[in-house]
Amino acid sequence: MNIEKQIQNLFSEDQSHIDADNFLDKLHRTRENKFRKQQRFTYGISAMAIILIVSVFTFTQLNNTEPDIQYNQYYADAELSDDMIDEYYEDIMIYLADQSEDIWSTMEFYYEVSSENISTEN
Q1: In b/e form, how buried is each residue of 65-97, taking b as 16+ CB within 10 angstroms?
Q2: Contact indicator for 89, 113 with CB cutoff of 8 Å
Q3: Domain extents for the chain?
Q4: How far from each other are the two terminal CA atoms of the chain, in whole angstroms?
Q5: Which of 62, 63, 76, 100 is within CB 3.0–4.6 Å of 106 for a Cys-Cys bond?
Q6: pLDDT tens sequence across 63-103
């Protein structure tokens, strides 16, 4: 509807009579809308706070590298001899040869490990 017609209707209607039911309906709708907006805002803030708390806890847990440091320190202090390392690789190769369905891939892995040990020794 055109705004000019609405203004004309306002002036042409009798303003001495106020519709109480219409006024109360509009008042209740306005209060209900305001309450819903306030409720949505509260829920939004609560959701953001929960997401922030969970993300902070997750970040602190994922950023914790203490077990890695302990692992490296434990094995750095072990002072394994070359004979012990060779024996360990031989035990792994025997186990892999027994468990593997493809012996050639196991042998290829063994030669890679053997050549890697030789190249690190030089």
Answers
A1: eeeeeeeeeeeeeeeeeeeeeeeeeeeebeeee
A2: yes
A3: 19-62, 79-121
A4: 91
A5: 100
A6: 655 555 555 555 555 667 778 877 887 888 788 878 877 77
